[in-house]
Amino acid sequence: MEQPQPHVLILPFPAQGHIKPMLCLAQLLCNAGIHVTFINSHHNHSRLIHSIQALSCYFPTLHFESISDGLSEDDPRSLPSFPDLVSSIKSVTKHLFRELLVSLNRGSGPRPPVTCVIADGIMSFSIDVAAEFGTRVIIFRTFSACCLWIYLCVPKLIAEGQLPFGADDDLEREIEGVPGMEGILRRRDLPHACRSKQIDDPLLQFFVNETLAMTRASSIILNTFEELEAPFLSQIARLVPNIYTIGPLHALTKSRNRISISPTSSLDASLIKEDRSCMTWLDSQPLRSVLYVSFGSLFVLTRLQLLEFWHGLVNSGQRFLWVLRPDMMSRDENARDVIPSDVTLGTQEKWCIVGWAPQEEVLAHPAVGGFLTHSGWNSTLESIVAGVPLICWPQLSDQMVNSRWVSEIWRIGLDMKDTCDRSTVEKMVRVLMEEKRAEIMKSVDQFAGLARDSISQFGSSNKSLQKLIEDLKIL
After folding, report:
1. What domain of life does the native source organism fall in (predicted)?
2. Minimal CB count within 10 Å: which of 204, 226, 342, 366?
């Protein structure tokens, strides 16, 4: 009897930082001859239409579908509306996902029935839906292993009375009871949801419940590599024995793609249009002289925060490339209009501002010597691969954990969390780009080498990916 072809359904949370690594995984699976159906929200599908068309041409077994996220088309889908997005996904998207699974399982057209669902770690409803069809589910967590391990320990911290704590409590107090993090983890380093004042806070309960649901899946995928987070991978394996560590995914995808892709292609699947003029500007800058500044696709600044960063950057005397999205202000203001004209006089040749940048290319450019970041996991991995040290200013979710590990464990940068004043910004930039650059670069170069090794032919991530592919083919 002929073995049925594998067909994997990939369901990301509808945000840039979740879509990108899961779309990298889709390409890797298609390269292995597996049919993949990638599900976007209607809203994001329309924003990615050029990337979808390009990807469909390069990968014949990659298919795209879209379903509603339950929000109106004019909803900003920004961080303040995150609770609304989560609620609408649970109430609307779950039902539509079930209908799509029924349709795909009919096996009509070029695709065989779905044999496995790979779902985002905060789309746990997929586990229940897939169970109705007897379909295996693998959960993809898009953040670090160290953050996942903390989330898995949160119920214990609540039971011990370490959570919640008040907003005015000592944030420097050490958190005990997270194995492997003794003497390292402070209250201020916990995922942001842990700063909730009440146990029944909806945001805290959402992440606790989604993390616990993950343990019902057959396996998990993590965008990391063993050499970076081995101690916490072994801790997680006690609860979820089958873990595939296949990061850094963006680098692994490039190494295994059999096609020649130009930097200007639409395969990066960015929800925001890139301004490539910054690459020309970088070409004219000295080696390792530019600080790249970007706070991701969702982050919102207040007017005061933007001004403090601007003055700090200018006062540091360093060249910088700053990504200021048009929607980056917390009010109906354009971020560029807030920058005082008197500060810019005489400094224009030392900085460049764009609405969005091709980040992987920017970090790989020889003129870039540092990265001031929100400490999102994709940005952290991209910086590690490129060998660029970090200044971390985290605000949300896993970013708080990542920044602590960047500064204290991996020692590849500096942690500036819970601080935003021009003197601190200026000091941090000078330290990274001048005073302690040689010291930090020793660790940066070491981890960049380990990342490259992990995606090599016999590297840990490459072998883990091959194991995942083999397992998907024998389902």
Report:
1. Eukaryota
2. 342
